[in-house]
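Why this split exists: single-chain examples teach little about how molecules sit against one another. For that reason, every record in the complexes split bundles all components of an assembly together and asks for one structure covering all of them. Below is a record exactly as it appears in the raw files.
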Amino acid sequence: MSAPISLAPGGSASRVSAKSGLEAATERTRQPIVTGTSVLGIKYKDGVMLAADTLCSYGSMAKYKDARRLAKVNDATLLGAGGEYSDFQSITDLLRRNALEDKCTADSLYEEDVNEECAKEVWNYLRAVMYNRRNKMNPLWNDLVVAGFSQPAFGEASEENKPFLGLVDKIGTTYEDDVIATGFGSYLAIPILREKHRPDLEEGEARALLEDCMRVLFYRDCRALNRIQIAKVTKEDGVLISDPYEIETSWDSASFVEPKGQLEGDGGW
Amino acid sequence: FFFHGHRRSTKLPARCGVSVATMSGALSHQHQPYEAMDHGIGQAHGQAHTGKSAETSNLRPTELSSGTTILAIPFPGGVVMGADSRVSTGTYVANRTSDKIAQLHDTIWCCRSGSASDTQALTDYVKHYLGQLAVETGRSPTVKVAAHLMRKLCYENKDNLLAGVIVGGWDAVDGGSVYNIPLGGSCIKMPFAVGGSGSTFIYGLLDSEFRPGMSREEAHDLVKLAISHAMARDGSSGGIIRTVVVTEEGNAREYVPGDQLPFGP
């Protein structure tokens, strides 16, 4: 007899299941249902910038065309996710709950004195969360991109808040780099980003580079949309996420104009 | 595409409109979103064709489905919630007079699709919690709170539920608003929301007819028109159209009999 539904994390699965350990575990790896596609990130002169489109697909259907896949975690950290949207919402809730708890249990109630988690700490924490779920054969089905600044390591100069950009995937793999992309972006956008990236990119150049990559992804990823959001983390302005906007696309190359399917031609495809 | 007992070939021509890499049922015990499935392709993987449709193959043998069309469209001052009235077990219409629009609180309602039992249980839980919250805080809960409560239940129990819900209503903070909670437990605020197996047939109609800021009458007419079109094409939707117009003043329930539909059957 199945247990009644419950608000507790893990729901009725949090109660002791009739099946023991390994059997129960192998049943639980789910498939994602509502999914987002690529997220891109680059470090630039003033900080870090992320881009993602606003589409969440329901299988092959483009169902939610205004889903926000970039989220502010605190004034120094930005999170972007591809994969299952409900798991991303759950992760965002978790991180915001933690931030609120930190704020309420801080030594002082004044905002300037609060020691917020920096992006690198969030990244490490998410690694633990994702790896833990993977060990239970019940992953949070997301590829997460964490962007922001990292507080200086012990011994470094204290003004040295370095820009930070890292990835955590659904099985807890982590890495950091100057350019990051998930999903299709890792195949199509990374080569472009690696070619064009410089650490002293201006904000406008960084944004143009990301838009170019999003355009390529719209052309070549079946699950992408041309409506995107750009977000940045900088020292002066903290976290800023743009409103969604449409990127331009080009449809005038010869292959569109001159169809190749005619009898005399090669038949096209 | 009828595959009897042998594995689906992966060599589909590139021109073919069917996407090969959809919700692959690699783990055969998983629920699949039955509303938007590519019919036929999803059924293979070594199983004989049992005569069950894509929508009902995930249900337990005697489980009821609200294979359904549900729709909610907000307008300034409130929301119009609409649904058909058919509940099916396999191909039999178990109930042709069902009420899929459930009241969660004074001016908060939800449209139910998926397993009838799962959504009834969810509705009861959320109704209970919202009532409790209203007593504790001394004021009416907002639609956002109701939607997220529903989301929490759907998300934390996602392995055991087959429920797609639309939560809509009026509150003093946001006016009329609509939240879609599909399988898996995401919660997404939408300008309008449609769900259930019949929804696939009316996305085109809604995309072309919906405009933000429609008046109460326009929204009500569009709800009735769209659901008629869905009922005309979806075997799992039918009967009458039930609507509830939710505003600050209260709720106005209406129904359109099956012989007076704006379109069809």
